[in-house]
């Protein structure tokens, strides 16, 4: 495998609205992020994925872009993002911009022009279709945010297509002018010295609406190859696509370097595993560790030789890792560290979502009025109108609503957790008095320093970056165990995913092994006996070499 600089990199995702508010208007901003770069440098990360900061009416918190080459006033200015790029570079941190090009905002000048007249050269930048004979939408395609994917435009008597909110019209990627505009815009950002792009719902750009093909359309990979050629290809940056529909085979198409598409993609199989197969995220089902292990093993082995994995527990759309997969109560600290170890020792590029490094948890607000997320609010309205009881909807929102990830970052135990001097745009999680960055930095044994150690291990350990993956104890209902192997080098990673202690009989080839304890959330282990006992959520990593420690 050809080595790439991002193979041993760790990415930290910032949701700017919720990170740090420097001017007291209740909304996080670029100046706030710049003020926290020393904190991120201390953590040791290499890149920041910045969720969108572009000019936007904020119908979907910036995932509705009105100008790709300007910054929303509430976040700052172009001069400030240039300062962020430069200040980050001083600390060896690069910025990944969020590329949202499946759709724009309905306030983007392209859409305003498109809407102004069917003869506008911009009309064909979007997807317009005539109504059916009875005036109804062209088909029954639903939007991911509820309701029809078709919105009627009175002036022209046609419908336009939107897979997200009706204020996020989908771009028409079959139009070469759209492709060129996007490539130019990407180059404009690349010229500013950014580290690459995270590509929002990129698997949708090859859609063919008349044939009801949305994801993985026939033009998807050619479009990405064209994008690679026309923009980032020669720049040596990191590109990661958000691809809900990827199978390992498809992920190899995106990320096999020989195909010249992307560095890697986010796959979501382990996420949707916890959703109801029929009703989706609003009807969660319990986490099944054995199934989870099967999914991870599949991705680890199928992308072993060509392609590259990205590794994540959570992001700005998903619930907090420790609430979903660990124990947000009694074993919050232990389980947060265990989850970190389990993920960071896999092969791929790890992503940390802001607050994960201090073990932030999901939130439970009583009233729907305390929620802001368009997806949660639309679904709440739609389903309660259809008779679903309030309490049932709230259970779905508590488990999987996007605002879980978006409550303000908890910096300290002072007013508003040090996030803002004003009124935060979204209420805080009340646990900020205990769970905050200041407390974490004051405690050498904190989750923060556990992440710091995992990140620095990645820089030191070749087997952690390039070793192959070998699943152990496949059917064990509580323990996630695996080995990484590179030449004679081995990493053994054991994680108890439960609040119950476990007595483990290791495979004979592992018993009696002596090595070096690299990290642990209870203690370091340098030797394995026949039986290994793991405390609640205990996890440890041992490095050994086949030559120095014959079985
Ligand atoms: O989590 C989701 C699946 O139900 C959706 O909330 C989400 O819309 C989907 O993951 C796609 O996400 C991306 O595109 C959206 C934006 O709202 C998300 O924040 C973004 O990550 C539209 O741009
Ligand atoms: Ca602000």
From TrEMBL:
Gene3D superfamilies: Glycosidases (3.20.20.80), Golgi alpha-mannosidase II (2.60.40.1180), Oligo-1,6-glucosidase, Domain 2 (3.90.400.10). InterPro entries: GH (IPR017853), GH13_cat_dom (IPR006047), Glyco_hydro_b (IPR013780), Malt_amylase-like_C (IPR032091), O16G_dom_2 (IPR045857). It comes from Crenobacter oryzisoli. It comes from the Bacteria. CDD domains: AmyAc_SI_OligoGlu_DGase. This is Alpha-glucosidase. Belongs to the glycosyl hydrolase 13 family. SUPFAM superfamilies: (Trans)glycosidases, Glycosyl hydrolase domain. Residues 13-406 form the Glycosyl hydrolase family 13 catalytic domain. It holds the Pfam family Malt_amylase_C.
């Amino acid at each position: 495998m050809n080595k790439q600089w991002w193979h041993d990199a760790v990415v930290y995702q910032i949701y700017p609205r919720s990170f740090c508010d420097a001017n007291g208007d209740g909304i996080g901003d670029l100046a706030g992020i710049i003020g926290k770069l020393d904190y991120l440098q201390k953590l040791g990360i290499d890149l920041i994925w910045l969720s969108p900061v572009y000019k936007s009416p904020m119908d979907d918190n910036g995932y509705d872009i009105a100008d790709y080459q300007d910054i929303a006033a509430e976040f700052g200015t172009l001069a400030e993002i240039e300062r962020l790029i430069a200040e980050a570079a001083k600390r060896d941190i690069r910025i990944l911009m969020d590329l949202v090009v499946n759709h724009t905002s309905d306030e983007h000048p392209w859409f305003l022009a498109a809407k102004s007249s069917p003869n506008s050269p911009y009309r064909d930048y979007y997807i317009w279709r005539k109504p059916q004979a009875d005036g109804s939408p062209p088909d029954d395609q639903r939007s991911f945010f509820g309701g029809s994917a078709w919105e009627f435009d009175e002036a022209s008597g046609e419908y336009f297509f939107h897979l997200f909110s009706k204020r996020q019209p989908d771009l028409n990627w079959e139009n070469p002018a759209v492709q060129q505009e996007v490539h130019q815009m990407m180059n404009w950002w690349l010229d500013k010295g950014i580290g690459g792009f995270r590509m929002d719902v990129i698997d949708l750009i090859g859609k063919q609406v008349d044939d009801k093909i949305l994801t993985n359309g026939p033009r998807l990979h050619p479009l990405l190859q064209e994008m690679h050629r026309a923009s980032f290809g020669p720049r040596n940056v990191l590109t990661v696509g958000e691809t809900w529909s990827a199978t390992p085979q498809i992920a190899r198409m995106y990320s096999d370097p020989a195909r010249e598409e992307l560095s890697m993609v986010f796959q979501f199989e382990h996420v949707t595993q916890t959703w109801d197969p029929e009703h989706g995220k609003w009807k969660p089902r319990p986490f099944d560790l054995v199934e989870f292990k099967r999914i991870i093993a599949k991705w680890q082995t199928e992308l072993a030789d060509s392609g590259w994995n990205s590794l994540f527990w959570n992001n700005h759309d998903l619930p907090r890792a420790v609430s979903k997969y660990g124990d947000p109560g009694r074993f919050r600290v232990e389980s947060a560290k265990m989850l970190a170890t389990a993920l960071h020792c896999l092969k791929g590029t790890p992503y940390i979502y802001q607050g994960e490094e201090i073990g932030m948890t999901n939130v439970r607000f009583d009233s729907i009025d305390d929620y802001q997320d368009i997806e949660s609010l639309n679904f709440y309205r739609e389903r309660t109108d259809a008779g679903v009881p309030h309490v049932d909807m709230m259970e779905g929102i508590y488990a999987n609503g996007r605002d879980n990830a978006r409550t303000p970052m908890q910096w300290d135990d002072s007013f508003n957790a040090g996030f803002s001097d004003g009124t935060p745009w979204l209420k805080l999680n009340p646990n900020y008095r205990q769970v905050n960055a200041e407390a974490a930095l004051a405690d050498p044994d904190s989750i923060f320093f556990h992440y710091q150690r995992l990140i620095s291990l990645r820089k030191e350990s070749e087997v952690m970056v390039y070793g192959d993956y070998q699943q152990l104890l496949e059917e064990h209902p509580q323990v996630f165990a695996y080995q990484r192997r590179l030449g004679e080098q081995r990493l053994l990673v054991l994680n108890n995913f439960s609040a119950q202690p476990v007595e483990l009989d290791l495979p004979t080839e592992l018993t009696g092994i002596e090595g070096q304890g690299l990290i642990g959330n209870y203690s370091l282990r340098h030797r394995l006996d026949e039986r290994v006992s793991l405390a609640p959520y205990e996890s440890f990593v041992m490095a050994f070499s086949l030559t120095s420690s014959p079985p």
